[in-house]
Automatic annotation (TrEMBL):
<dbReference type="Pfam" id="PF01551">
    <property type="entry name" value="Peptidase_M23"/>
</dbReference>
<dbReference type="InterPro" id="IPR050570">
    <property type="entry name" value="Cell_wall_metabolism_enzyme"/>
</dbReference>
<keyword id="KW-0175">Coiled coil</keyword>
<dbReference type="GO" id="GO:0004222">
    <property type="term" value="F:metalloendopeptidase activity"/>
</dbReference>
<dbReference type="InterPro" id="IPR016047">
    <property type="entry name" value="M23ase_b-sheet_dom"/>
</dbReference>
<feature type="domain" description="M23ase beta-sheet core">
    <location>
        <begin position="149"/>
        <end position="237"/>
    </location>
</feature>
<protein>
    <submittedName>
        <fullName>M23 family metallopeptidase</fullName>
    </submittedName>
</protein>
<feature type="coiled-coil region">
    <location>
        <begin position="82"/>
        <end position="120"/>
    </location>
</feature>
<dbReference type="InterPro" id="IPR011055">
    <property type="entry name" value="Dup_hybrid_motif"/>
</dbReference>
<feature type="region of interest" description="Disordered">
    <location>
        <begin position="1"/>
        <end position="21"/>
    </location>
</feature>
<feature type="compositionally biased region" description="Basic residues">
    <location>
        <begin position="7"/>
        <end position="18"/>
    </location>
</feature>
Amino acid sequence: MAFTRPTGKHRRPTRRATRTGAGLAGVAALTTTGVVSTLAFPAAAAEAPAHTGFTEAIVIGHSLADRIDDQAAAQRLAAEDAAAEQAAVEAARLQAAEAKRKAEKKRAEKVRAARAAERERLNRYVLPVEGSYVSTGYQTGGSLWSSGSHSGVDFHAPAGSAVRAVGAGTVVETGWGGAYGNEVVIKMHDGTYTQYGHLASATVSVGQTVTPGQQIAVSGSTGNSTGPHLHFEARSGADYGTDMDPVAYLRGHGVDV
């Protein structure tokens, strides 16, 4: 004879079943926390390695610290390389600046030396006829001179000899000068005047600047002259009668006469 379950309300679970369900829920909770495995199965817990979240965190922490240390070391090396490169660049800049300073100093010294040499060249004096000598002295008396004495000196100069400016100056007069024949008068850079007479011809013109030793004329025997030679005068002013001793004048400027 078969029995059938009555329909309608379900039967109320027994207390045992309730306790069993609660126990299973507790075991599940303990299992989640990792405690039940140790308590329920101590042998298995002893054999199996413990893999807790704490241990993994330490391992991960060590790995991260190593990576941070490596990164810091790399950054430090990069900074040192950058500093070394910057130091090399700065050293090169300083070296280039020093080389430039030395080059500029050398150029300035060359310029100063060239200017000094030019000043020396312009300030020097020379004989009006190279390698010549005085054939008639200053203030020599006689009837050959209208003033009764020689107002300059005569330098030995065969016809056609090159006549030179004794120093730097500006030509203020050329052409016929009466008893002087063809002449050239130069106002010197120090304000004095020099005169060159009895010339065959002049090779400069009024207003021209001349330098020491520059050819200004060709010697001859024009005007009141007894033969080819150069009449040379030194004057303190432009007018006749302001003559000075030409030999003393030249010697005063370092010329060996």
